[in-house]
Amino acid sequence: MGASPWIVSDELWERIEPLLARKERRFRYPGRKPLPDRQVLCGILYVLHTDIQWEYLPKELGFGSGMTCWRRLRDWNEAGVWQRLHEVLLAELNAAGWLDWSRCVVDSSHVRALKGGATRARRRSTGAGPAPRHHLITDGRGTPLAVILTGGNRNDVTELLPLLDAVPQVRGRVGRPRRRAVTLYADRGYDHDCYRKQVRARGVVPAIARRGTEHGSGLGVYRWVVERTFAWLHGFRRLRVRWERRADIHQAFLTLACCLITHRQLKSFC
Questions:
Q1: Membrane spanning segments where (predicted)?
Q2: Is the dihedral of CA 119, 256, 206, 228 positive or negative?
Q3: Which residues of 106-117 are buried (b: 16+ CB within 10 A; e: fewer)?
């Protein structure tokens, strides 16, 4: 186990299993025994890594049908499993001292969408067609803290405060949980004095490039980590193009990918 990226390792499963709800089978007429959660999770990761269509998930892999994996992904996302897993992994990184709270970095990235749907990302898209946007905030080392899905015509600065507020309370150390970095770095797309004041009101110092000034502000020395994290995110082929009509399913893939990146960093640093 562990040779393929979609095979769930023992150490990752030890963190996920306590978060999954257990369903008691009926004593009378119990029906067919459900597929084990670990095998279904392997199927979900297989789709995330390969971008295969749900209905074409190979049954010989033993991960169950595509619809079984889709339903478990939906149910686990509605139960908040991926968000809680992300918080657990962040707490472990924080306990090891590998979260850089001296600064955080925000940015966004467009992705293609080849299917429509009455979702927020679809309704707010204009121009040549639906083009959802991923909004990401990381710590100073590039660890993803939160990710948000919106429509493609959403201005970057409008998601600045929601991104800051989406960062969970990270435990792992003695004292109160932490969720705010000292300084926030962003490019010119976030340049607005009104939002600067609101960032300061949250106890964070804004370091945002000014519009109309020459390039070479020096902020790229700190901002490059979020670009690298986007490269990691879009290394999962399912996130390069949005195929899901439902925004919650794509958001589930996004949060799960952030969990995998955080777990990867946990293994590297610790």
A1: none
A2: negative
A3: bbbbebebeeeb
pTM for the structure as a whole: 0.89
> Residue 196: CB partners within 8 Å, gap ≥ 6?
206, 208
CA pair distance 137, 9, nearest whole angstrom: 27
Radius of gyration of the chain from its Cα atoms, rounded to whole angstroms? 20
Asked whether 69 and 57 are in contact (CB, 8 A), the reply is: yes
Q: 91-101 in b/e burial notation, b at 16+ Cβ within 10 A?
A: bbbbeeebbbe
- Find out whether 254 and 239 touch, Cβ atoms under 8 Å: yes
Q: Which two tokens stand for residue 146?
A: 């939160």
Question: Which has the closest alpha carbon to 178: 84, 88, 94?
Answer: 94
Residues of the chain falling short of pLDDT 50: 1-2, 117-129
Determine contact, residues 111/133, Cβ cutoff 8 Å: yes
Tens digit of pLDDT for each residue in 180-204? 999 999 999 899 999 999 999 999 9
In the chain, the largest separation of any two C-alpha atoms, in whole Å, equals 73
Reported as a single tens digit per residue, the pLDDT across 32-66 is 788 999 999 999 999 999 999 999 999 999 999 99
As a whole number of Å, the end-to-end CA separation of the chain is 21
**What burial class does residue 241 get, using C-beta atoms within 10 Å of its C-beta: 0-12 exposed, 13-18 middle, 19+ buried?**
middle
The alpha carbon of 189 is separated from its chain's Cα centroid by a whole number of angstroms, namely 21
Surface-to-core class of residue 44, CB atoms within 10 Å of its CB (0-12 exposed, 13-18 middle, 19+ buried): buried
Tell me the pLDDT tens digit for each residue of 206-226.
Answer: 999 888 777 766 788 899 999
